[in-house]
Design goal:
Layout (H helix, E strand, L loop, with lengths): L1 E5 L4 H11 L4 E8 L6 E2 L3 E2 H10 L3 E5 L1 H9 L12 H19 L3 E3 L13 H11 L5 E2 L11 H4 L17 H10 L16 H13 L5 H6 L4 E6 L2 E5 L3 H10 L5 E5 L7 E5 L3 H13 L9 E7 L5 E6 L4 H7 E3 L1
Parallel strand pairs: 1-2, 1-6, 2-5, 6-7
Antiparallel strand pairs: 3-4, 8-9, 8-14, 9-11, 10-11, 10-12, 12-13
């Protein structure tokens, strides 16, 4: 008998997989990764899930679903959580993907680390029922950590899984999971703070601004939301200012043809990226913001160099660092 485990690499999903392995079920782990995950290595590998399968001794298949996920993010049928997190729609989407792989791989059911009442949006009893139904997986999702609090599943009815060996954990406390981890000698697992940028208030403000002013999201746009200070000049124009050398380099990496890159001429300072429809006044305003975050922020007039990416257009502005009042008018997120 084979099952698939949705494995984030966190403690709950690792424990759920271990409980099923101990019942003699063949298990393969699936990890669905998006551009919003915080546990990736250069956007290609989920480090937490990789570490977990090494502990469990099971194979792992990683799916990067970033491109397909963006339309769901823009218009989630079941709405957002407290920030820009469409948790119910996200879960349905992932489980539909898992179902397709289950049918192709010969697996019989899906295992998750969900705990009843742990997440306020997607782990409520009624939300779990809704998600199962819309994913076409009614009775085929086994949640070992909370199984005794939930309706009996097909694997239990068919005798593939012994229900008495499953658990009745609920709520947000981690005490029971930590005790179980000690019993299984599972150590060095990630903290439960969450691995999704869509639950982060600052990132959510930047994303909401982008969605309000731009028709289509691209992965490039989303990557740029992850770093820098963000400023809105007009519905068609925004500025991103690096905070440190690492962010400066990322801004250069994700710049694309038509963008303007700005940097100080004679003083240490950030790299800034201006993207959208602009005129000379906009470039000068971007230069004054760039100067405000440089070592020359107290100097009356400073030189800022600019270059249009992919073209020969270059120039230099002599500007005064922007005032704090004007800066705050345009800031989306610091």
């Amino acid at each position: 008998m084979k099952a698939l485990a949705l494995l984030s690499g966190g403690l709950d999903s690792t424990l759920a997989a271990r409980l099923i392995l101990d019942q003699g079920i063949e298990l393969e782990a699936l990890n669905f990764m998006t551009v919003f995950c915080t546990c990736t290595n250069k956007g290609s590998t989920c480090l937490a899930s990789q570490k977990a399968v090494e502990t469990l001794g099971i194979p792992l298949k990683i799916f990067n679903i970033s491109e397909e996920y963006l339309p769901i993010l823009r218009n989630p049928k079941h709405g957002y959580g407290s920030h820009m997190n469409p948790c119910i729609d996200c879960r349905i989407f992932i489980l539909k993907k898992a179902k397709a792989y289950m049918e192709a791989s010969g697996a019989s059911f899906i295992v998750t680390g969900e705990v009843l009442g742990q997440r306020p949006m997607s782990q409520r009893r009624e939300a779990m029922r809704l998600i199962e139904k819309e994913a076409g997986l009614e009775g085929l999702i086994l949640r070992p950590l909370s199984a005794h609090l939930l309706p009996i599943t097909v694997p239990e009815k068919e005798g593939w899984i012994k229900r008495e060996k499953l658990l009745n954990i609920q709520g947000r406390s981690r005490k029971a999971q930590i005790q179980l981890a000690e019993q299984f000698n599972i150590r060095d697992y990630p903290c439960p703070a969450g691995g999704c940028l869509l639950t982060d208030p600052g990132f959510s403000r930047r994303l909401r601004d982008l969605m309000d002013h731009q028709g289509n999201l691209s992965l490039n746009d989303v990557h740029l939301l992850k770093f820098g200070r963000h400023f809105r000049f007009s519905p068609q124009l925004k500025l991103i200012v690096g905070r440190n050398e690492e962010e400066n380099q990322k801004i250069v990496t994700f710049s694309k043809e038509g963008d303007i890159l700005l940097k100080m001429v004679s003083y240490p300072g950030p790299v800034s990226l201006l993207r959208g429809e602009m005129d000379r006044e906009d470039v000068e305003r971007a230069a004054s913001i760039t100067a405000r975050y440089s070592k020359a922020k107290e100097i009356e007039k400073v030189a800022v160099q600019y270059k249009r990416v992919g073209r020969s257009e270059t120039g230099e502005c002599s500007v005064s660092p922007i005032s704090e009042t004007e800066l705050q008018k345009r800031m989306i997120s610091d």
